[in-house]
Design goal:
Mean pLDDT of chain B: 85
Number of domains of chain A: 1
Largest interface: A-B, 102 and 114 residues
Order of helices and strands of chain A: HHHHHHHHHHHHH
InterPro entries (chain A): Bact_Polyamine_Transport (IPR051789), MetI-like (IPR000515), MetI-like_sf (IPR035906)
Number of helices of chain A: 13
Oligomer: heterodimer
Mean pLDDT of chain A: 86
Strand content of chain B: under 5%
Keywords (chain A): Cell membrane, Membrane, Transmembrane, Transmembrane helix, Transport
Number of strands of chain B: 2
CATH class of the largest domain in chain B: Mainly Alpha
CATH architecture of the largest domain in chain B: Orthogonal Bundle
CATH class of chain A: Mainly Alpha
Largest sheet of chain A: none
Strand order of the largest sheet of chain B: 1-2
Membrane topology (chain A): Multi-pass membrane protein
Family (chain A): Belongs to the binding-protein-dependent transport system permease family. CysTW subfamily.
Radius of gyration of chain A: 23 Å
CATH superfamily of chain A: MetI-like
Main location (chain A): membrane
Low-confidence stretches of chain A: 261-269
Structural class of chain A: mainly alpha
Strand content of chain A: under 5%
Chain lengths: ~270, ~290
Amino acid sequence: MTFSPATRVLLRAFTGLVLLFVYAPLALVVLNSFNTSRTFEWPPPGFTTRWWSAAVESDGARNAIVVSLEVAVMATVIALVLGTMAALALQRFRFFGRDTVSLLIILPIALPGVVTGIALANAFLTMFGIQLGMLTLVVSHATFCIVTVFNNAIARLRRLGGNLEEASMDLGAGTFRTFWSITLPMMRSALLAGALLSFALSFDEIIVTTFTAGQGIQTLPIWIYQNLFRPNQAPVVNVVAAALIVLSVIPIWVSQKLAGTDESVAAAR
Amino acid sequence: MAQQHPPPGGGAALRSGVLHRHPRLRLGLLLGPPMLWLGVLYLGSLAALFITSLWSVDAFGGNIERIWNLDNYRDLFTLDVYRTITVRTLLIAASVTVIDAVLAFPVALYMAKVASPRLQRILVIAVLTPLWASYLVKAYAWRGMFASGGPLDSVGISPGYGLAATVLTLSYLWLPYMILPMYAGLERLPGSLIEASADLGAGTATTMRRVVLPVLFPAAVAGSIFTFSLTLGDYIAVKIVGGANQMLGNVVYDSFLTGNNLPFAAAVATIPVAAMLVYLAAVRRTGALDSL
């Protein structure tokens, strides 16, 4: 490589600083979850695990986690079906308007969340006359989750080509048989990676959620947000935040198991 | 690989045969449901949003009156407060995009062209991991960093809650979206090209400009779509670290929920859409959209 030793050292130092910038705030949250001070005095006067036990007993947080899990699972299932269908259509066929369709699929994440949120809320309320609730929330989440499954699926299909499917057809298997026995098994790990990302995206989402969930439904992000500015809840909120940071290692680990580094890069976009 | 077979049956075989002979029908069945969802429900909602922005609410109950008028847009363009918020939001989005590009480039370059394959893998994971951590938690983490008496304040470098804190927090939130496309772009650039450039007598600056930049630019544009769009629509980060400052998202949210004025909220929401459409149209020729 042609970079001078000085350039390399500079690049290395800069990368180190950026990583410090990335991880320092997260480390602070985890550290503060053990801070004895209710107001997160700095430096911490002492350490305690009592906020963690308080958080485990918090009904609000527990109920919110259940709601978030339900929404994320349902949205992911819908996204899996629709995203796979769209990927098959776009990768295996050439048709007029193909570029427009692929633009349409990325639109829900390319447009700001407030726009998606208020557009869907407005449609539910004024066009369909549906009260905001679980249904509208899941539909909204699925809308922006489709793209994550689609991206993973289409990248895999592009790499695989259609040879095995053609062979299967030539050997007499029909469309469905070929899909079940050939296409789906080959796509499985890509679909899992997409589903994982879709799940994480939904579980974490707050902007679209505030518009489309209505009053009665409290997902975990909504619960955190509502308790964020309440001083007496601060330590418990901080523990939940710390737990989420620690837990985010799991999907990373799974996605690394599922696919090589290159695919996880593709999956993140 | 697990083999899964459909239940045997003449019906399925027959249908499958029909599908086999008619690729157009197959395409229609595959494309129909996603298009119904995205093309009809989602695009329809966006269209309905625009229509709603041309209506107004009555003075008492906040009920929508379906009378066509441009009052919402007139208010938006003539009232100083909204003009200030629009300009502020666009400036924040532009600053965040520039800061992220400046921070991301050296990191991406180091990852793609200097680090050993092993370190490269570790760095990709290190950059990806925060993406899985909750958005809200990350914004909240900066609230702790900026707090008076917090870590930054104790060494005297905290800007406190306000616009600077908002820009920094948003840059932090969207940084991986800039690093990853840049890294992917630079990864694809063969090292031999850089060496050839040096062998042919180009200095570091010339190599950067004529070999690295052409690859980097579409990648940066792809990343900027996210940094720009996500910032335009944000209203949570600014509430958490921005003090009393407002962005367009806050106006949309407040008009919708607190103000009970859906038509005005809809009119405000068309600003980020228009900004993004202009932006997408402008970057379309760079080929950045293909690498999304």
